[in-house]
Amino acid sequence: MRIGQTGDGVSDVIVIGGGVVGASAAYHLARVGASVTLVDREDQGQATAAGAGICSPSNVLDAPAAYYPLAVRSGKYYDELLAHLAEDGERATGYDVTGMLRIARSAEEAVQLPDVMRALRDARAQGASHIGDTALLDPSAVAALFPPLGPVHGAVYSSGGARVDGRLLRDALRRAAARHGACLMHASAALDVRGRRVHGVVVAGKNLSADGVLIAGGAWSAGLTEILGIVLPVSPLRGQIAHLLLPGTDTSGWPVVTGFHAHYLLGFPHGRVVAGATREDAGFDYQTTAAGVHEVLGEALRIAPGLATATLAEIRIGMRPATPDNLPVLGALPGLSNAYIAAGHGAYGLQLGPYSAALVADQMRGIAPPLDMTPYAPERYSAVG
Ligand SMILES: Cc1cc2nc3c(=O)[nH]c(=O)nc-3n(C[C@H](O)[C@H](O)[C@H](O)COP(=O)(O)OP(=O)(O)OC[C@H]3O[C@@H](n4cnc5c(N)ncnc54)[C@H](O)[C@@H]3O)c2cc1C
To answer: How many Cβ atoms from other residues are within 10 Å of residue 173's Cβ?
Structure first.
């Protein structure tokens, strides 16, 4: 039985995890009248609280093919989501379309820029409208857009590149969900399983029942499915990320800077520049390390020596919920009638998470998704015990 088809028209859902994915699902469900409880433990290392915030399909040219159908729809969904949040009085999400630069730091990289631009234009022609217009920029045009950058050999600019503040978006979603009646709990939840049915969750020794349960526990999700005998390879990929301050500088419109390597820079309001990030297989070890700080600051200053006078505001640490095939795990858990998962968004959860959470929330209500969900289905991994 799908929730929402219970006969009385009232859905009753518990969402475990209040990062961007769980908060989005809770908001989506509460907005359409479901009775929602969101339980979040606020673990140190919540990925949403540390995420850089790049939101553009043009960020990932070498992603698995199944990333694009989700990324393209996720970009469009952001417009809808922001409009809904605004209707609910939530305008502070930190989402802005600032454009994106893919810079070439050497002549060898510059040779590849026309191919990058062609790939982006092809992707746009195939529906990725959020890439926006693309152009090849010469070094002086690049420097004008992001003044701290050092010498570059040019860049591809895509006008549709956007960034979001994960903390602001998460909090806006939670508040808006609450405004639609969702109950928010700060607690640790475990599944209440009886036979092949999830009856709800156990919180502080108390059983809370529900028609359906959604696991949105980020990198901690695999721990939640263990009790079901389901082994999901969602694991933490630690990221350390630096927040720099340039007081008195208007950084709010600076484009996202990416390059032919894993690091990037983003401008946010109030002189804040974010430089990311490490990708470390360090389990749930919530630590700022000398090597991590060295890596992110070293890369930031190598690309943008003009940041040398910035002050170091903080280093954030987050556990990306990684999967072996770099695709999220979305949908009904195998063998269970009413337990669902939305997790494993890896390095792209701020971009994909709001939409994929809405997709799974719709699945829970019996609404068929508008795209083939097979590549994201839990079945591709799960060994049911
Ligand atoms: C350094 C860094 C940079 C990133 N940059 C980007 C980027 O530029 N663009 C992008 O799109 N994505 C980026 N990401 C990825 C993105 O942040 C994540 O994919 C996304 O935030 C995952 O959201 P989530 O809600 O699934 O998990 P999380 O945000 O980790 O939230 C999971 C929540 O579930 C809670 N929870 C877990 N188990 C339980 C339980 N049993 N009971 C109660 N609560 C529980 C946890 O406490 C936590 O609050 C980045 C991540 C990092 C770390």
So the answer is: 33
What is the side-by-side order of every strand in the sheet holding 212-215? 183-186, 35-40, 12-16, 212-215, 339-343, 329-332
Residue whose CB lies within 8 A of the most ligand 1 atoms, among 74, 100, 186, 220, for a mutation test: 220
Break the chain into its structural domains and give their ranges.
1-96+161-234+323-385, 97-160+235-322
Contacts of residue 282, Cβ cutoff 8 Å, sequence gap at least 6:
236, 238
CATH architecture of 97-160+235-322: 2-Layer Sandwich (3.30)
Which residue, by CA, sits nearest to atom 12 of ligand 1?
348
Topology of the domain comprising 1-96+161-234+323-385: FAD/NAD(P)-binding domain (3.50.50)
Q: Which two tokens stand for residue 124?
A: 């746009």
Q: Assign 109 to helix, strand or coil.
A: helix
Q: pLDDT 10s per residue in the chain (385 long)?
A: 345 444 333 369 999 999 999 999 999 999 999 999 999 999 999 999 999 999 987 766 677 889 989 999 999 999 999 999 999 999 999 999 999 999 999 999 999 999 999 999 988 888 888 899 999 999 999 999 999 999 999 999 999 999 999 999 999 999 999 999 999 999 999 999 988 889 999 999 999 999 999 999 999 999 999 999 899 999 999 999 999 999 999 999 999 999 878 899 999 999 999 999 999 999 999 999 999 999 999 999 999 999 999 999 999 999 999 999 999 999 999 988 799 999 999 999 999 999 999 999 999 999 999 999 999 999 998 654 4
* Residue 221 and residue 344 in contact, taking contact as beta carbons nearer than 8 Å: yes
C-alpha 20 – ligand 1 centre gap (Å):
7
pTM of the model: 0.96
In degrees and rounded to multiples of 5, residue 211 shows phi and psi of -70, -35
* From 15, 28, 48, 167, mutation site for ligand 1 pocket: most ligand atoms within 8 A of C-beta: 48
Q: Which residue type occupies 57?
A: P
| 183 bridge partner residues | 37
**Which residue's CA lies nearest to atom 24 of ligand 1?**
218
Collapsing DSSP states into helix, strand and coil, what is residue 310? coil
Does residue 348 contact residue 199 with C-beta atoms inside 8 Å?
Answer: no
